Amino acid sequence: MISPIRAGEPIRAASRGDERTSSPPLECLWPRRLAPRLMLSLVLASCTTAGPAPVLFSGKLALRHAVALAQLGPRPPGSAEHERAERYIATHLERLGLKPEVDTFTVSTPVGPRPMKNLVARLPGRTDRAVLVAGHYDTKLEPRFRFVGANDGGSSAGLLLELARVLKNSL
User: Fold this and answer.
1) How far apart are CA 88 and CA 160, in angstroms?
2) CA distance 24 to 47
3) In this structure, which of 50, 64, 111, 147 has its CB flanked by the most CB atoms within 10 Å?
4) Measured between alpha carbons, how far is 148 from 71 in angstroms, rounded to an integer?
5) pTM above threshold 0.85
6) Cα–Cα distance between 90 and 70 in angstroms, integer?
């Protein structure tokens, strides 16, 4: 007669007189040396968390921003192109859920006073300490040739917009 296996009862290998000999003994299927390895694997698997994948900086995305700003053409402060660059930057910061602040001021230049603006986006950190990362998006007024500032204001603004995306999604 087959005796039932009760919960918590140790499983023994089948003996010759036992009617359960039609299937291989469980000890053959579950070697004692495998049990500690399996338990260790289960413990390690339960300790690791998948978590979100890290947000990586994309040079391609930064370059796209730089190209978009350069395609606006020269962006000297006070020009229509400069205002379009400001809207481009502000729009991308807002899409990240940031609220760009505008700091306006006037500076003296060789061609007279010029209105200037700083766009400021704040990201809360883990401490009360602050880190300032800055660049510019304007171009100088160059009457002798078409200066679009791709490797100047465009590249720094592209870098900062991509850095904002990474930091916003990492903090």
Assistant:
1) 13
2) 34
3) 147
4) 8
5) no
6) 16
